Amino acid sequence: MLRLLPPEAAHKATIRALAWGMGPMDRIADDPVLATSVWGLNFRNPVGLSAGFDKGAEVPDAMMAAGFGFAEAGTVTPLPQPGNPKPRMFRLPADNAAINRLGFNGNGLSPFVWKISRRKPGLGPFGANVGKNKVTEDGAADYEIGIEAVAPYADYLVTNISSPNTPGLRAMQGREILADLVDRVLKARARAVPEESERPPLIVKIAPDLDDAERADIAAVIMDSDVDGLTVANTTVKRPDDMTDPQTHQDGGLSGAPLFPFALEIVRDMYRRTEGKLPIIGCGGVASGADAYAMIRAGASLVQLYTALVFHGPALIPRIKRDLTQLLKNDGFVCVSDAVGADHG
Length: 345
What we know:
alpha/beta
């Protein structure tokens, strides 16, 4: 029934149904082999919901009840903004993909913080993903505001500097700009949570469309800072030649199956560049247990997905966990962390 609605209307209906308690429940306990610990946080499984699905932090617990090991809300900007003109979300069923050019639409920090401050912890780690408003010239200032506001209420924090739908945002991945941003958001986190041992880990989310020099710069900045991890990667502006859906020409960020090879390659590359010392969340096109396992072996400590739910529904979550469990056991791993980076020897 949801697929009969336009994409954005279907998404709003889904969020509303979940908020009303109409979401699925995964009542089967996760196999112990899936349990993992990253940044001192305990995950009952490494499969998480990526940002973009729950921009307003309305249903993170409902999604964890559906089987995800963790959930990330956002991207949230300091001020409300409408985003780009509609239509701005497109399904590409022929390619198991989607394109969006939403542009960080949302109601701003105030209602977001109100919701997350009233959450009852227990289902799994919760992440808050922050961004900048379109009209803000000093982008780092918006990230400072966002991080300072959400840090007391989130288990981990994400600075999203890689969406292709906000003009100039990806320029913040440049070496000097990124170094300044990292310094400022780390100080914002310290102001929000003075006790160092209680500060949530800070993660930077990067794009899959980076060239070799840009990847080297990001790795150098991150390794020289107190940033705790990377999310690899956001949507891509590339359009692989083998895509056939009529909507392929739409502007915006591409997600889903065609993104997976790019995301997997950059996970592997950034794991190598950071010498396996920095936890990575692998994100982009994950749609099966085999995809999740490939991300983990390439260097991801955790994985995230969103677009695959559009085409496979919530039954996908337990299926991924079941298949991932079998793949780990087949190769003799006793826990997820043992398989992280296995392809690197």
